[in-house]
Each structure stands twice: as C-alpha cells, then as structure tokens.
Amino acid sequence: PIEHRFFPHLQRSWEGVLFSDYEIVKERAEQTTTQTGLKVVAWINEKLYQSGRKYSADFKETMTIAFDELLPKWNYQIYPL
What we know:
Layout: H1 7-14, H2 22-30, H3 59-62, E1 63-67, E2 76-80
Antiparallel strand pairs: 1-2
C-alpha cells in the first residue's frame, strides 16, 4: 500500500527505471525524499493471500471493527466479539 499523497514523489523516483525484480522497486522507494524531509520506509510483504475468499453472512454481527483515529478509511483492526 502507498500513501496516496506520497505517490507523485515515488513516481518521479521510479521514472525511467525498468523493474526487473522487487528489490529494485524497494531500493528506489527508499531513496525517495521530499523537500520537507519526508523519507520512505519500505519492505517487501511476502505473505501469500488466498484469493476469492468470501466473508460469512453474519460477519458484521460477530466482529468488532476498530477504526484508526488518524486514517480510519485505510487503517482498522477487526476483533471477534
């Protein structure tokens, strides 16, 4: 995931680079900075996710969703009741 306000800076850093592997993407991302001093911390997520998985019909009734105060649209945690 990439913070949408930071994407233009990453895009400038990636301009003209051929991505032959994930390490190049990570290295170029980590080299990206802004004039105000913002720096990138990047890691490669190697976790395998199951695709096509459906949630149960009673999911909302059996789980509690806690939204983050700073970025609730993107950051949340789900707990069983």
